[in-house]
Design a protein that fits this description.
The chain is of the alpha/beta class. Helix content is 57%, strand content 12%.
């Protein structure tokens, strides 16, 4: 019995035969598959925090695979995307990578090459999901701040001391210390260094 893989594969291709072929191949390897015939349906249902690999066809009718990849990245989705196409060339591969693809496979694909690409992507997918979860938690923490707490947070992550924050915001040092304690508690961290990391996570960076 084939062992199930925890990471699913999302196939976006307007060719039903390709979708069915990939579904059969990947299911035999223990991957759960989600199949979409167009970019619109995929983008509407897309969840960047769900550990998955995305196989994106280049030609998708009303929206090209390149445009779909750009839309995915614009959603803050950092999961691995493998572009598949019947018209592969170096220029297209470069364009795909610039758009945000992490790999590139030509049709008709070599089965071994396909699974090697998916194996590479599998290792990236959980890391991507962890980053997305971290970014969500960071954004939730920032959204929980009051306007004044956000002012103090913005100053603290620049490396400003409590005294400098107090002068900049026209507050007393004791008041700044009060807001600083609230910010640390709401963010669930113990130091300003961790606040800086939280700020970068909220922006989608990976420190």
């Amino acid at each position: 019995m084939t062992e199930a893989n925890t990471c699913k594969v999302i196939v976006v291709d307007d060719d039903a035969g390709v979708r069915d072929s990939l579904d059969a191949l990947l299911s035999a390897k223990g991957y759960a598959c989600l199949l979409y015939a167009n970019a619109e349906g995929f983008l509407k249902a897309n969840d960047p925090e769900d550990p998955a690999i995305i196989l994106m066809d280049y030609s998708l009718g009303t929206e090209s695979g390149l445009d779909a990849i750009k839309s995915v990245r614009a959603q803050g989705d950092v999961r691995p995307i493998i572009m598949i196409t019947a018209h592969g060339d170096i220029e297209l591969a470069v364009d795909a990578m610039k758009a945000g693809a992490t790999d590139f496979i030509e049709k008709p694909w070599d089965r071994n090459a396909l699974f090697e690409a998916i194996d590479r992507a599998t290792k990236q997918a959980q890391t991507a999901a962890d980053r997305a979860n971290g970014r969500r938690r960071a954004l939730e923490a920032l959204e929980s701040f009051t306007p004044r707490e956000r002012d103090v947070f913005d100053q603290l992550i620049t490396g400003a001391s409590n005294k400098l924050v107090a002068r900049t915001l026209d507050l007393s040092p004791r008041t700044v210390e009060f807001y600083r304690a609230n910010v640390l508690e709401k963010a669930g961290v113990a130091s300003v260094a961790e606040l800086v990391r939280l700020a970068f996570m909220a922006r989608g960076a990976n420190l």
